[in-house]
Amino acid sequence: MGQFTPTPHDPDARGHFGPWGGRFVPEALIAAVDELAAEYDKARIDPEFVGEFKRLLKDFAGRPSLLTEAPKFAEHAGTRVFLKREDLNHTGSHKINNVLGQALLTKRMGKKRVIAETGAGQHGVATATACALLGLDCVVYMGEVDTERQGLNVARMRLLGAEVIPVKSGSRTLKDAINEALRDWVTNVDETHYLLGTAAGPHPFPLLVRDFHRIIGIEAREQILEKAGRLPDAVVACVGGGSNAIGIFHGFIDDQDVRLVGIEPGGAGVETGSHGATLTAGSPGSLHGAMSYVMQDEDGQITEAHSISAGLDYPGVGPEHSHLKDIGRAEYFPVTDAEAMDAFALLSRTEGIIPAIESSHALAGALKLGPSLGPDGLLVVNLSGRGDKDMDTAVKYFGLGDGGQA
Amino acid sequence: MSLVSDVFAAAKAESRAALVGYLPAGFPTVSGSQDYLRSMVEAGCDLIEVGLPYSDPVMDGPTIQAAAEQALSAGFRVRDVFDVVSSVAEAGGRAVVMTYWNPVLKYGVDAFARDLAAAGGLGLITPDLVPDEADDWMAASEAHGLDRVFLVAPSSTEDRIDMTARASSGFLYATAVMGVTGARDVVSSQAPELVARVRAHSSIPVGVGLGVKSGAQAAEIAGFADGVIVGSAFVSAANEGDAAVRALAADLAKGVRSAAAIV
Hints:
The structure holds two protein chains of two kinds.
Chain A: E1 16-17, E2 20-24, H1 27-43, H2 47-59, E3 67-69, H3 71-77, E4 80-85, H4 95-108, E5 113-118, H5 122-134, E6 137-143, H6 144-149, H7 151-159, E7 163-167, H8 174-188, E8 192-194, H9 205-228, E9 234-238, H10 243-249, E10 259-265, H11 278-281, E11 283-287, E12 289-294, H12 319-326, E13 330-335, H13 337-351, H14 357-373, E14 378-383, H15 391-398
Parallel strand pairs in A: 4-14, 5-6, 5-8, 6-7, 9-10, 9-14, 10-13
Antiparallel strand pairs in A: 1-2, 2-12, 3-4, 11-12
Helix pairs in contact in A: 2-4, 4-5, 4-9, 5-7, 9-10, 13-14
Chain B: H1 3-13, E1 18-24, H2 30-42, E2 47-51, H3 62-73, H4 80-90, E3 95-98, H5 101-107, H6 109-118, E4 123-125, H7 135-144, E5 147-149, E6 151-152, H8 158-167, E7 172-175, H9 190-199, E8 206-209, H10 215-222, E9 227-230, H11 232-240, H12 242-256, H13 259-262
Parallel strand pairs in B: 1-2, 1-9, 2-3, 3-4, 4-5, 6-7, 7-8, 8-9
Helix pairs in contact in B: 2-4, 2-12, 6-7, 10-12, 11-12
């Protein structure tokens, strides 16, 4: 099956996955999302577009990414573990798949300016990279709190020619960066494409972001069959907005015996209220253009998410995940900041791979899930990004600057 | 004819546009907003838009964002909006509520409609709910006799203008510019064209909002629209105090009556 082949899991024409998704946006943006949907419908079946996208994935992003067995890490999980190495992509995470696709769509639509939001900075860096490659103007909105904890990525984006605007409103994190990007978009929509970084937002974003990331699951399925001779018992991925997870899940979604497991940011613990585990502890609502699970108070005010990982610090989630949870095809559970940081250190030490803190949530999930599968079990973990960007956080968390040891 | 339609019909009978004034409930406090809204009614607002403060107001510029944040940190609760609506009605004003959709979803669409109607509210303006997603609201508004004010924008296609006008009642909210709320120095050149496009599809009254802050701008808009909607400027005036709110309302009320002199 090709990456852009329609699936039985696609949303309806108005973007609904069951009761989820849709378009909860100002009328002023409807023309733009309609234009985007129409352009994507043409592009996905246009051999020239698909060919150019595949060429960039191969020659620029470095795909296919490896599938690496992690035997020493696996001793701690009690089951066999393979890592899908999205950390090895150019710019250091899965995000490059989506931005290359959307940047090509931007050019097809004749638009010259791209805006994006970013949390950890991975999507911002990827977007700035694609814009540099394809000659597009780039503005990235980033919560002020995140610009402070991810200063290196701010510098990378600026080096790549992007303008980075710190967002000072609301909680000054990812959700407010999205609000500000939406305000820019509604003002400058004629010449601007909003290059949304996750499989959320109004239709067609959840569909097209997913499709651009389906390559992860397509490769992983072929690779695990080749290396292990069978399908895994479960595929594990972290879920903030949910783009890396939906991308790898789709490679296995019709393999009913493969469990799809999303790991949410449990922060200080879901019971403390200080977390970002939207699917575990949220309730239905509309945020940033789609109906999905959201974190909100009893008045429907969106509450702030908390996670040690800036990239998972989001009180919403892509609508297809809400659908997969409801129909029982995927399962979601949280791990805490501490569990994620333990896994971060463990993979670094045992396998010589420093994972992103986002991806460390998936690794922590694998450590929890592994014992129930036993030594004959088989897990594929999506290692969605590398941890270089997280060194400041790690230095503080483990006291590495003071001779501390993780 | 709804009570909101009556407001526009009465203004039209006087050969003028209706003045629609916005202020968030709970800004700066619940009782403070009730006082300011009474002043706006007394000083000449024909229709009041009571804003419902929301954590993620993507259609709003810095002025209304800050007002919403202030209201929320002062402890505003969604149920307070009904008290504010009641006080507008008691002051002899007519009120609709302008709200992002999630607080209504969380409250329950039918329950919100029921409680709004009971408080004397006349309808809802829904900046992030398009008719395509509004099945529950269509049913609830019918059940409780409320008006549905949807928005059109310069980017709306002819089909969407037609569809949105059909789904609306009371009036249709035309956003004068592509952008968010906030006072601007000049009236958008896109506004007259958008109103004319609506007229080609529907006889529903058209209110124009986004960016209006002075009597002179109100007069200009009154030359081509049925209503002039003012929001951020009232928030800024409220920051200065009651006298500023009354002075702004009076200036705008004069403006909506001066269209003939301008055109």
